[in-house]
Amino acid sequence: MQVTVIADGSQQNVTVPLGSTVQETLDAAGVTLGELDRVDPPAYTVLSDGAQVRVVRVREEFQIVQETIPFERQTLRSESLPEGETRLLQTGENGLREVTVRYLYEDDEEISQSTVKVDVIRTPVPEIVMVGSQSTVERLEIPGELVYLDGGNVWLMQGSTVDRSPVLTLGDLDGRIFSLSADGKWLLFTRTSEEEGLINTLWAARIDQTPPLLIDLQVANVVHFADWVPGSTLRVAYSTVEPRSAAPGWQANNDLQLRSFSTSGWVSRPVVVVDANAGGTYGWWGTSFRWSPDGKAMAFARPDGVGLVDFETGEFRRLLETTPLQTFGDWAWVPGVDWSPQADILFAVEHLPLEGAGDPETSPLFGVTAIPLNAGVPLPLVNQTGMFAQPVASPLQPCPEDPGAYQVAYLQAISPRQSDTSRYQLALMDRDGSNRRVLFPQEGAPGLEPQRVFWSPAPMPGKDSHAIAFLYQGDLWMVDTLSGEVQQVTGDGLVTRLDWR
């Protein structure tokens, strides 16, 4: 039978036996197919007399082209500049990438092109412009270093409240961990992660140099606790969770690990102090920890109690057993806890039973309790505080009558029996629970959101009193604990975390 073969711009008639396939016909015509060539009809087709076979020559070419990656322009609002004034913090630089493009041809005619590979040769550097938003805030001299998280970036105050500057402009800090080292040189923090299966990652940054030195601590999913090991700047303690798709988004490990690092970027393997465990009642939520001031002990707090971590056995030694709160939601209440400056007393929020009959797990009553570590039994200091009272002891405030004197700040719920949704007042008391008074805000004003407040590390310059820094309506505020004088420190309403050392 006769078959017509069209290939390479020419046509030929080929005589082949009856029942021949396309491939057999091509072989008879001396036409060879390339790897990408295609034939119509397909090669396995059995032909009949007078059929026509068409070969389409297909080839591909690859070309590498370089493309510019435009830099982004970022605006950083700053109260260190007058309103409307701008300052270039960082010059933008374009990046560079190599793009591999595949071109496909059929019979020497281009039919498609596609990108098959992209290699980033140089990452773009964003342009950062500081825009002034300075408000009329009075200058206040302060001791130590105060850092705060504003719009995802970290600012540092030294010397006074007007002497402030951005030290980390990453824009991706999630605020779960935000801890300044004792010497004020390093910041421990968490960053949001776009990687599937990760909630965040733990980082350290040396912020007393420009640019700051960033260290990836190679730890992920830190929600409740991470802090510096006292007396060792380059060592941290942390606890982890396992991400979950269901609320609240994790299952706590209730573990405790230590990890060291160096300025070269070296990070040690973890030292496990407490293995992953169930964490008691409602342990899925998690356990919080707090170092003693001298670093010799660590307190823990979980929904069913407060106590100390046994470093030798890795077990929790409970000192105060409290009834877990039934929240009827996808969260669990964890008692706030803090140490006395001499590390001999723990201050904790206790879930108190309701008067008369009733389910103790649903009791709306909470109070602050002192737990002596050397001798004695837990001593209730103040009742009806609300569940987020979060006591915080001051540094020592010695006086001739009492060289070991100090005070305790705590939050007082405006509606103590609805303290899960109530706003709070910042209150102060002596270490024995006496001389209780409200510092801020005054009655009738909107209250504070639940938070941990921070004492000044030393008396305020030129004064004999300490101050307390706290967040109010998205801004940083300070109150003098002796005079009660209150001062707003920032004004952009974007502050979410702070620390003061």
Give the gist of this structure.
This protein is an all-beta fold.
Strand adjacency order, main sheet? 2-1-4-3
Would you identify the regions where 5 or more consecutive residues have pLDDT less than 50? none
Query: CATH H-level name of the domain at 61-128... which superfamily?
Result: Resuscitation-promoting factor rpfb
Mean pLDDT value? 92
Largest sheet: 4 strands, mixed
Give the CA-CA distance, first to last residue: 96 Å
Mass-distribution shape = elongated
CATH class of the domain at 61-128: Mainly Beta
- Could you say which structural class the secondary elements and strand pairing correspond to? mainly beta
Proportion of residues in extended strands:
over 45%
CATH topology of the domain at 61-128: Resuscitation-promoting factor rpfb fold
Give a written overview of the molecule.
With about 500 residues, the protein is mainly β. Among the domains are: about 1-55, Ubiquitin-like (UB roll); about 60-130, Resuscitation-promoting factor rpfb fold (Single Sheet), CATH 2.20.230.10. The chain is built from one helix and 40 strands. The termini are far apart. The mean pLDDT is about 90. About 0% of the residues lie in helices and about 50% in strands. Strand 25 (about 300) and strand 26 (about 305-310) form a beta hairpin. The strands form eleven sheets. A four-stranded mixed sheet has the order 2-1-4-3, covered by helices on one side. The chain is elongated and about 120 Å long.
